[in-house]
Specification:
The protein has 9 helices and no strands. The chain is mostly helical. The protein has 2 domains: 87 residues, Rna Polymerase Sigma Factor, Chain: A, CATH 1.10.1740.10; 80 residues, Orthogonal Bundle (Arc Repressor Mutant, subunit A). Helix 2 packs across helix 6 and helix 6 crosses helix 8. The longest helix is centred in the last third of the chain and has 26 residues.
């Protein structure tokens, strides 16, 4: 993170803030998409987070903690977006970072669908911790700091979330049975 850009934005430099937006849009969007599981809501949340960042950046006491602070603001916006749209509508659009790279594309699609359905069973708190820890490779200590919750809470949310995700995916795999491939696809 370029400390000079953060400090410039704190002083009202719009060019510095625009550079921060460009440099951070992708990472914030990925986190929002991971939490909300919808590209349109994730884009809305990312844009709202940038508005909140611009409005509040002067209050940031330690510019070196901009990254964690921006995640915290984004997570709050994601929670607000999720409350506005409480029904689950999985996003059918794959992000470039989620594109299958293995030769078994059908199996990957089936696994991705099971994962999406598994995410339906998680609370927003559990999804948030899973996304920050697994998508961003944040340590659990860093997740706790970012979310401003105790480390034990992060451990609990991660553990319960992963258990719920596994159980939901196993139940889905059992109920849907093996995947049959139409003959047209095989040819």
């Amino acid at each position: 993170m370029d400390l000079e850009l953060v400090m410039g934005a704190q002083q009202g430099d719009t060019a510095a803030f625009e550079s921060l937006m460009v440099a951070n849009h992708h990472r914030l969007f990925l986190v929002a998409h991971g939490i909300l599981r919808d590209s349109h809501l994730a884009e809305d949340a990312t844009q709202q987070a940038f508005l909140d960042i611009w409005r509040d950046i002067r209050r940031l006491r330690e510019p070196s903690k901009f990254e964690a602070w921006s995640y915290r603001l984004l997570v709050r916006v994601c929670y607000a977006e999720a409350k506005r749209k409480p029904t689950w509508t999985p996003d059918s659009e794959m992000l470039p970072d989620e594109e299958p790279v293995a030769s078994d594309a059908l199996g990957i699609v089936v696994d991705r669908d099971r994962l999406e359905r598994g995410f339906q069973h998680l609370s927003l708190d559990q999804r948030t911790v899973i996304v920050l820890h697994h998508l961003l490779d944040m340590t659990l200590e860093k997740v706790a700091e970012t979310l401003e919750v105790p480390l034990g809470t992060v451990h609990s949310r991660l553990s319960r979330g992963m258990e719920a995700l596994r159980a939901a995916m196993e139940a889905d795999a059992t109920s849907s049975g093996p995947v049959s491939v139409p003959q047209e696809v095989v040819r």
